[in-house]
């Protein structure tokens, strides 16, 4: 199977851009290129990754300025046309700011930055970002953020749940949804969601940091594998058409 | 104190986290001596390819001198001199002397700087630290045996009406001085523009050995560069030294005056919860420890391990200094700081390579302080020569005093180690029930200078703990060989809190806390056996079938070895003296600092 082409968006304050690149290229063996924030061309990418970091310093709300960058106009256009977009950490924040995902990420309930391994339960494995996982599977992946407290109003939350848009929730090692396993105070222990159409995905934990057992866990591979499978299926489908 | 700690941790966290460099290792000491003058030392470790080293030099007549990065403002003027006076009531008025950092701009500067170096556009580069442009111009000129002619009117300024004096001494952060190759200045400007930063030519390299500074059409300074720099023409001071009188008092300490507590399990619990020994999890969870996807061993063990992509190698990093030891015996205390840092990297499987340091002392004009300083340097030098770890750089911070007292002399050592094969990374926690536990190195009847003595009895006294360099070196050789031969399941250094704390930590740091049934055969006082801090000891564990090979290596390399017992159960039991429930101990150890700082 031919490799898919991923584009990793680089804002000046992105600091997980190289990690995402490394994960996609050297662990998953895919084609990948960086997309500079001042560009307005996605370089023919099949999928876009918005990596973690501090986009433009994030002295305002995280991602509030990034959404206005030239590259984001293209990312929004790409997403609206059904392209696969995945935002991790700061990328998730930017997708919410850009209106591609519902809700917002508030400051952590502890008011402190938190970096540690957390457990995630795969809630919906019928999405383009989780199809390689099994429902209820528990992944170990680190978080590293100061503003990861997922929030939305009650009706939007009910809709999110009813439409099974929650992909990952924070849980204990044995998969229980407990308040102690929630690192930031997110509503309903939400760690990752997709949009209604299922092509835009955001998560606060960093799957690109969990690609090698040497570094503690390779549970992040499943997330990238899912995207690759989704892209391959779509390719096959379009060939058949 | 809590306010200061919260502030320092969030400051380090904010800057490091934005910057995208993982904060992987460190240490914290709490002691009343630091209350008026908290010390914050940072160590940065980078990797550079051979042939890609940039140096802080100015060469080649006519090469353009450029200032890059942020604008120059009035912040930080006299920052270095502020740091060079004792803190007093009047110090409040010097607040503006403190520079304000902006990690986002620093990140841009980092990226742009690496790009110009990669493209081979420059002759030299130096960051602007203490004394700003003054320091960079003179040091780069002196190093290149050249001169510089710069025009301050061309420096991008953040404020109006700055005098030449202010511009020369501004310590505005996130700036560098670059000597570009002639003809490459446009490309340098282009790269900095890409990152939305200034890159402005302010002058050129000369060959007259002079730094010439122009402002508003006039020459405002014209001085030989060489005369400014340390190791060059700057004056060398030979200060008066005098052994401090407090050493007579601390030296008069006799262990016999201290009763041995009855409940040694309670003492162990007290030590595990003591902020100096307890896990620093509350702190390091606020630091991004895994960005860049290289961190193979996170904070909480003996040393951090960072793998090097594209190779089979990893580096180990650790900072260390027990200021109390140095206070009690500056020479031996400084040797111990080096030795312990080395022991820590050895425990994760690394060969000690080199050190850097930050020497934190009081007012050097006081002969007693200068004595501490010169003794500590002598000790550090001796230890580094013996361990074959060159001192590659460092930093000195004097005047750490408030009106009542100076800080403990605190030469913080940053140690770097190399692991040739990532398959040989060792961890501190016990691994399997049934594994055998050994102590390498000798216990001593010595409670001097210990955390136990300070925490339980409230005494800072005696000498620094026992230390002998030859024992230390043999221990390192033995443990490294054991790790490389695959004999060990765990290795953990015996340090603050002594043998019992080290054993408890190996229980707590297991994947799930696990107990151990142990016997320690010593005939001297029990508190010295369990809590004494004699140096050059490491607790290791191995599979039972490896016992023979392990003992063989210890005997060959002449390291004392004692079999202590087995891993297993839910309690750490030592002789009939200690019976500690490890789950409760883990909670005490892991959450003690959090309970103090974030009571719920």
Summarize the structure.
Chain A is of the alpha/beta class and 241 residues long.
Annotation keywords:
heterodimer, A: 241 residues, alpha/beta, Rossmann fold, two-stranded antiparallel ribbon, 11 strands, B: 600 residues, alpha+beta, Phosphoribosyl-aminoimidazole Synthetase, Chain A, domain 2, 60s Ribosomal Protein L30, Chain: A, seven-stranded mixed β-sheet, 33% helix, 20% strand
What do these coordinates show?
The complex is a heterodimer of chains A (241) and B (600). By secondary structure, chain A is α/β, with parallel strands linked by helices. Chain A has a single domain (5-240), classed as Rossmann fold, CATH 3.40.50.880. Chain A is 24% helix and 24% strand. Chain A has a nine-stranded mixed β-sheet with strand order 2-1-3-4-11-10-9-6-7, sandwiched between helices. Chain A has a two-stranded antiparallel ribbon with strand order 5-8. The longest helix of chain A has 20 residues, at 221-240. Chain B has 600 residues and is of the alpha+beta class. Chain B folds into two domains: 56-233, PurM-like C-terminal domain (Phosphoribosyl-aminoimidazole Synthetase, Chain A, domain 2), CATH 3.90.650; 246-597, 2-Layer Sandwich (60s Ribosomal Protein L30, Chain: A), CATH 3.30.1330. The radius of gyration of chain B is 26 Å and the shape is globular. The mean pLDDT of chain B is 94. The chains are: A alpha/beta (241), B alpha+beta (600). At the A-B interface, helix 1 and strand 6 of A face helix 1 and helix 3 of B.
Strand content of chain B: 15-25%
CATH topology of the largest domain in chain B: 60s Ribosomal Protein L30, Chain: A
CATH class of chain A, please? Alpha Beta
Q: Span from first to last CA of chain B? A: 19 Å
Fraction of residues in H or I helices of chain A: 10-25%
Contiguous helical run count of chain A: 5
Number of beta strands of chain A = 11
Number of helices of chain B: 18
Distance, first to last CA of chain A: 19 Å
For the residues shown, what is the average pLDDT of chain A? 96
Order of helices and strands of chain A: EHEEHEHEEEEHEEEH
CATH architecture title of chain A = 3-Layer(aba) Sandwich
Main sheet of chain A, how many strands, which sense, barrel? 9 strands, mixed
Strand content of chain A: 15-25%
Name of the CATH class of the largest domain in chain B: Alpha Beta
Computed structural class of chain A: alpha/beta
Largest β-sheet summary of chain B: 7 strands, mixed
Point out poorly predicted stretches of chain B: none
CATH superfamily of chain A: Class I glutamine amidotransferase (GATase) domain
